[in-house]
Amino acid sequence: MRTARLRNVHPVLWAGWTALAAGAVLCVIGWYGVSGERYAERQLPYLASCSIPGAALIIAGAVLLTHGRGALAAMRVEELYGLLVAAEPSDADEAGQPAGAPLAVSGDLLMVPGGTLWHRADCPLVAGKVEAVPVDAKLLAGGELGPCPICEPVEETD
Fold it and tell me: Given this model, what pLDDT does residue 158 score?
């Protein structure tokens, strides 16, 4: 699947670069022709035959390159998604925990100043961070912090 997509994307990129190069050459030829003529009526043929088509080719090349790069990015995302979906869940991870077990089980709640989430103390997102501080009850009650989707902490009501 990947090679079929690459066959469709690479010609678009090559066409974009070719159109950009041809447009630049035409613009240079048009500029050189216009600059060598003194009268406007003698400059118009250079504008009509070189400069305007050159500018159109530059625009077309930019559009083709943008489309080709977007297609490449979409292809990479699809490939990564395919790898993610194809990965089979294991019965246990390296730590010996069952596959459905939560990552963190600590009851202590922490937050990072300026952050938008609150975490369990053993959450991988805050574990080992010296800037992590205990959760302020006012921020928690005010709804300014949300629970971490990784460790899924439960709010303790006193």
Answer: 47
